Amino acid sequence: MQLKRWLTVGAVVLAAGGVAGAAPATASHPVDPSQQSLRQLGMRHDLYIGTAVDMAALADTADPQYREIVSREFSTVTAENVMKWETLEPTRGTYNFGPADELIAFAKRNNQKVRGHVLVWQNQLPSWLTTGVSNGTISKDELRDILRNHITTVVKHFKGKIWQWDVVNEAVSDPWDTPSTLHYKGFWAQNLGPGYIADAFRWARAADPKALLFYNDYNIEAFGSGDPANDKTQFVYDMAKALLRDRVPIDGIGSQGHLGTQYGNYDTIQVAAALKKFAGLGLATAFTEVDVRSQMTAGVQAGDSNEINPRLQASAANYSVLLQACLADPHCLSYTVWGFTDKHSWVPGWFSNPPEGMATIMDENYQPKRAYNLMKADLIHSGPPYVQPRIPQKPRR
Ligand code: 9MR
């Protein structure tokens, strides 16, 4: 009796699409899917839709809308900055978990998963670490111990609370770097050699047997020439294959998805093919930091619709290309945008010559743009046989 009652209530909630307080759908009044949130529509495919969260914005009592949209629209969250080394361990051995713990508590209250970002990266390192290495007070052996300690402490602290960890981020160079032949770049490769990548995954796995462990990078949305000397996607693919051969516990590839309307970018077929190739190795995939920025020409800044509209269209199209490709491969587990409003986006602060912006799915006043609606449409108008529910990834031992 108890069980039957629960099932009946559950069925009504499901029919209403889980909208708190919404009238249940009936045959004569079906739910209008365009009124559902991204997170509700994603669940039609078991696909988690996420956003990076700016903790200052989340805490801003003068702006409740930010919080409200994070909880309403998204089923997974990523800390935009507060899980990075400079925030977590600003002084050697002293950890500042407060801001990250707040995000985890927020996610729990809102029934959201958390992507952990990031364990090993060459940016946003604390100065005690970089200065210590450059002035020789931290030796190479000690540096390896420091890295192991950091990974172990951080992963253990969040054990059981992180769905996917970005274990290593942006380890591979770009064709515009010197030398132009792709290689392992940055602080960690320079000081420890590329073996730090396998170490990092092993240490992370030892600290949390259940989290999915990801390698995360940008400009790997599609394959190019196939030559790892200049095709970054191929380089990362070869790296992942070698890690798996060496029984390193890597579970997934995060494709960041930072695109710009001034570039050619890709089509859905190319991007879906790349995801399927990674899945062929036995890996999950995810889009982890999607945004599509535009150059803020004088015309855009002056409000000229001839300049603005094509950019909004192109931005929306690129959001859609990545989402359709993700939907097309059941191993693509989540699609996270790197901020959802132009009010809080890294883009204008980063690209100033020429200025760039308009990169997110809502404008500075939280008004949805075409990109937001196109994402919804993709989630609504897709399904079997070509779009199947997600296949959960088992963490590798
Ligand atoms: O969005 C982040 C911005 O607030 C920081 O200032 C910046 C520092 O490097 O990092 C940004 O996030 C980056 C992410 O951690 C890794 N991939 C690229 C993202 C955009 O730069």
Automatic annotation (TrEMBL):
Assigned EC number: 3.2.1.8
UniProt-listed PROSITE patterns: GH10_2
Keywords, sorted A to Z: Carbohydrate metabolism, Glycosidase, Hydrolase, Polysaccharide degradation, Signal, Xylan degradation
Top EC class, one word: hydrolase
The keyword Cytoplasm appears for this protein: no
Record keyword Phosphoprotein present: no
Cleaved signal peptide residues: 1-22
Reaction(s) this enzyme catalyzes, per UniProt: Endohydrolysis of (1->4)-beta-D-xylosidic linkages in xylans
Occurrences of domain GH10 (ranges): 52-378
Family the UniProt entry places it in: Belongs to the glycosyl hydrolase 10 (cellulase F) family.
Protein name: Beta-xylanase
Taxonomic source organism: Asanoa iriomotensis
